[in-house]
User: Which sequence fits this backbone?
C-alpha cells in the first residue's frame, strides 16, 4: 500500500488537569496512517478515541508528542498555518453539525466562502459535490427538512469541498439506523476509492471496521492496545481488548481448557471442514461458538472449538489443520 | 371626545417615544452586540478564552444593570451634557437609555449566541475558520432568530425606561402621563397614554415574533 504515512502520530499525550490529579486522556500514542488507507480507531466510550481524532486536527491541543501531517508537525504550526492545514483535512461528526440557517447548498459553500472562493464558482463546486453524494434534488432544503442520512451526506459534501487529502470521521454513523449506516459507509468507501482520500474512522462498532477499514487500531483507557491490518487483528488478536471485539462476551474468559479458534476464509466455507476433520482424526470436538464476518467484502467464518483432553488427539487435529491450510490457533488467556 | 390640541399633544408624545426608543435601541445594539460577542468568545470554553476581558466585562455589565434607571439617568447628567449639550429633551434622554440598555442587550446577545450548538462552531474550526469568520458566518447568522427576538424584548424594555425618563426631563408619553395624569389629576390623559404605550409594546412584540419566525429555518 502506502510507502509513506500521510499522518504520523508520535508519542502523543493529552492530559487534563483535574482538581487533585492529572488525568490522562491519551498516553504514548504512536500511529502511522498510510496514504489511501481507511484507518479505523475503535474503542469503548471514554477510551479516548474522540480526543485522539480531535488531536489530529488540533481541535484539542495535545499536551505532548507530535502529529505530523505531510511532514509538518501540526503542534508547532502558527495559527494561520494551522488553519491552512485544517483545510486539507475534512471532518464529519456524529451530530452532523450543519449550519441550521443555511440550505444544503449553502452549507457546502461554507468552507469555500472561508477561503474566498468566488460565489459562482463555489456554487458550482457545491452542486457537483451534492450530486456526488446523491443529493442533487435536495440542494435547496434546510437541514431541518432532511433525514439523518441526508444530513450526513451534506456534511460529507461539505467536508470534501476544499479538496482535502484526509477525511476524519468521528462516530459518523453512530446516530444513524443500520441501513443508513451501511449506505454512508459505502459512500465513505467510494470516496476513498474514487478520490484517493485517506479516511480516519472513529467508531465503537466492530462492524464498521469490518465493512470498510483496511487498518485498525484498538484504543482502551487512552492507550493503543493493538494495531495492524484488519485481517491481521481479526485472525490473530493479540490482546484482551482485541479479543473482546472479535469474540462474543461469553467466550472472552475462556470457559474451559483446550479452546481453539478456527478461521475459515471464503474458500474453505464450501467444504465440510469440521466434519471431515472429525472423521479423519477419529476424535470429537466441541463447538462452542460460530459466526461469520464480512471483512472488506470477503466472508470469513470463525469458530471456537474445544479439543479433546488427550494430547495425541489434539496433535492429530493440529496436523490435519496444518495439512489442509486451516487456520487453527489455541486461545490463551 | 378629545380636542385637537390634546390629540396633537398625544401624537407628539408617540413620536417622541418612538424616536427615543428606536434610536436608543439602535445604539444599545451597537454596543451590546460587541460586548455580548466578546463575552461569548472570551469565556472559559469560548473560542478565544480570555479571563481578563471576560471578568472585566462581566463586572461592568452586572454593575450597570444593578443601577436603578432613574438614579443612573441623574448620575450621568454631566456626561449627557458633554455629549449632546443639554440634559432635557429626546436626544439627551437617549444617552442614559443607551448606557442602561447596552449591558442588558449584551446579556441577551450572550445568551442567544450560547444557544448555537458548540458542535457547529467546532465544525467551522475544523474547516479552518478564523475567529472573525466564526463570529460573522457562524455565531451571528445561526443565532439570528434569537437575536431578533431579543431585540424586540430590548426595545420594549427601553420603551419602559423612556417613559420613566419623563420624570427628569425626558419627553414622550411618559412625560405626558406624569405631567397631566399625575401632577394635574387628568386621569383621561393618563389612561390614553397608557393605552398608547400598550399598543406600541404590542406592536413591537408582534413584529418581533413575526420577524423571528420568518428568519428561522429550523422549523419545517
Assistant:
Amino acid at each position: 500500500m502506502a510507502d509513506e504515512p500521510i499522518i504520523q502520530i508520535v508519542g502523543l499525550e493529552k492530559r487534563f488537569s483535574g482538581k487533585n490529579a492529572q488525568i490522562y486522556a491519551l498516553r504514548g500514542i504512536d500511529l502511522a496512517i498510510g496514504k489511501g488507507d481507511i484507518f479505523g480507531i475503535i474503542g469503548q466510550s471514554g477510551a479516548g478515541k474522540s480526543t485522539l481524532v480531535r488531536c489530529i486536527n488540533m481541535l484539542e491541543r495535545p499536551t505532548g508528542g507530535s502529529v505530523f501531517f505531510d511532514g509538518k508537525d501540526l503542534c508547532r504550526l502558527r495559527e494561520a498555518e494551522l488553519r491552512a492545514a485544517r483545510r486539507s483535512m475534512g471532518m464529519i461528526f456524529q451530530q452532523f453539525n450543519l449550519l441550521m440557517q443555511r440550505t444544503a447548498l449553502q452549507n457546502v459553500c461554507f468552507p469555500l466562502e472561508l477561503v474566498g472562493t468566488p460565489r459562482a464558482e463555489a456554487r458550482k463546486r457545491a452542486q457537483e459535490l451534492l450530486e456526488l453524494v446523491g443529493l442533487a434534488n435536495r440542494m435547496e432544503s434546510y437541514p431541518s427538512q432532511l433525514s439523518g442520512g441526508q444530513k450526513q451526506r451534506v456534511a460529507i459534501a461539505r467536508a470534501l469541498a476544499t479538496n482535502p487529502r484526509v477525511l476524519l470521521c468521528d462516530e459518523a454513523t453512530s446516530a444513524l439506523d443500520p441501513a443508513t449506516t451501511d449506505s454512508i459507509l459505502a459512500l465513505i468507501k467510494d470516496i476513498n476509492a474514487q478520490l484517493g482520500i485517506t479516511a480516519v474512522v472513529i467508531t465503537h462498532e466492530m462492524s464498521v471496521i469490518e465493512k470498510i477499514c483496511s487498518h485498525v487500531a484498538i484504543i482502551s483507557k487512552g492507550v493503543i492496545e493493538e494495531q495492524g491490518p484488519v485481517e491481521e487483528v481479526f485472525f490473530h488478536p493479540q490482546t484482551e481488548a482485541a479479543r473482546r471485539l472479535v469474540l462474543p462476551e461469553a467466550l472472552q474468559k475462556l470457559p474451559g481448557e483446550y479452546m481453539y479458534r478456527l478461521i475459515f476464509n471464503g474458500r474453505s466455507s464450501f467444504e465440510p471442514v469440521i466434519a471431515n476433520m472429525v472423521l479423519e482424526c477419529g476424535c470429537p470436538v466441541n463447538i462452542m461458538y460460530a459466526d461469520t464476518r464480512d471483512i472488506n467484502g470477503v466472508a470469513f467464518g470463525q469458530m471456537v472449538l474445544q479439543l479433546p483432553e488427550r494430547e495425541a488427539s489434539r496433535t492429530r487435529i493440529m496436523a490435519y489443520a496444518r495439512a489442509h491450510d486451516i487456520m487453527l490457533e489455541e486461545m490463551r488467556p | 371626545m378629545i380636542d385637537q390640541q390634546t390629540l396633537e399633544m398625544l401624537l407628539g408624545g408617540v413620536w417622541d417615544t418612538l424616536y427615543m426608543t428606536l434610536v436608543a435601541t439602535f445604539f444599545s445594539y451597537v454596543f451590546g452586540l460587541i460586548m455580548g460577542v466578546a463575552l461569548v468568545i472570551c469565556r472559559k470554553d469560548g473560542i478565544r478564552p480570555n479571563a481578563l476581558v471576560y471578568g472585566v466585562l462581566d463586572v461592568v455589565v452586572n454593575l450597570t444593570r444593578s443601577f436603578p434607571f432613574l438614579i443612573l439617568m441623574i448620575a450621568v447628567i454631566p456626561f449627557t451634557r458633554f455629549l449632546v449639550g443639554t440634559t432635557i429633551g429626546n436626544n439627551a434622554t437617549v444617552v442614559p437609555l443607551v448606557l442602561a440598555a447596552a449591558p442588558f442587550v449584551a446579556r441577551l446577545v450572550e445568551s442567544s449566541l450560547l444557544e448555537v450548538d458548540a458542535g457547529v462552531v467546532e465544525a467551522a474550526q475544523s474547516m479552518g475558520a478564523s475567529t472573525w469568520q466564526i463570529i460573522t458566518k457562524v455565531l451571528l447568522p445561526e443565532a439570528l432568530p434569537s437575536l431578533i427576538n431579543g431585540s424586540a424584548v430590548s426595545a420594549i424594555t427601553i420603551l419602559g425606561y423612556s417613559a420613566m425618563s419623563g420624570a427628569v426631563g425626558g419627553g414622550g408619553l411618559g412625560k405626558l402621563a406624569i405631567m397631566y395624569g399625575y401632577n394635574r389629576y387628568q386621569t383621561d390623559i393618563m389612561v390614553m397614554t397608557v393605552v398608547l404605550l400598550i399598543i406600541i409594546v404590542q406592536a413591537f412584540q408582534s413584529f418581533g415574533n413575526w420577524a423571528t419566525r420568518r428568519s428561522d429555518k429550523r422549523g419545517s
Q: What stands out?
A: Chain A has a mean pLDDT of 89.
